[in-house]
Design goal:
Layout (H helix, E strand, L loop, with lengths): L9 H19 L3 H6 L1 E8 L5 E3 L2 H10 L8 E11 L4 E11 L11 E10 L5 E10 L5
Length: about 140
């Protein structure tokens, strides 16, 4: 569902895939510092639990509580569900995330998430997440 109604310029789609891959790698390694480093120093993020966290210090504290051990031998997969330019140097990216147990089954609670991010890009190709919202997806969604 990546911008189906129009021809999508390649840069936003490519950027969205870079974001998804970086988030998946950091999450799979349960690397809080790497995960937080993907966010802008003044970012805002609403977690799946509804907490508003700002900057990098608050996300680091939050993720240090919930990320390590969260996979428990399982896995996480991220895929781009939507990407769209949002002005000069910005892209809105929607990522579908699945958490699986060690046996490969989808986790019963919190197994699916939908993240919406606003990502800014620099002329040199550098990017960072400036805003995000994470929603836990129910089984009937």
């Amino acid at each position: 569902m990546i911008w189906e109604d129009e021809v999508m310029p390649p840069a936003p789609v490519e950027m969205a895939h870079h974001v998804a891959a970086a988030l998946q790698e950091a999450h799979a390694r349960e690397d809080v510092d790497r995960y937080v480093g993907l966010f802008d120093v003044a970012s805002t993020w609403i977690t799946s639990r509804g907490a508003l966290i700002v900057g990098r210090k608050e996300p680091a504290e939050y993720l240090a509580r919930v990320m390590p051990g969260g996979l428990a031998g399982g896995s996480v997969a991220c895929r781009v569900a939507h990407a769209r330019p949002a002005g000069d140097g910005a892209v809105v990216v929607v990522i579908e995330q699945e958490h699986r147990r060690a046996d490969g089954a989808l986790k019963e609670v919190g197994g699916r998430h939908r993240h919406t991010y606003v990502v800014t890009t620099e002329p040199a190709g550098e990017w960072s997440i400036v805003a995000g919202h994470n929603t836990t997806v129910g089984v009937d969604a």
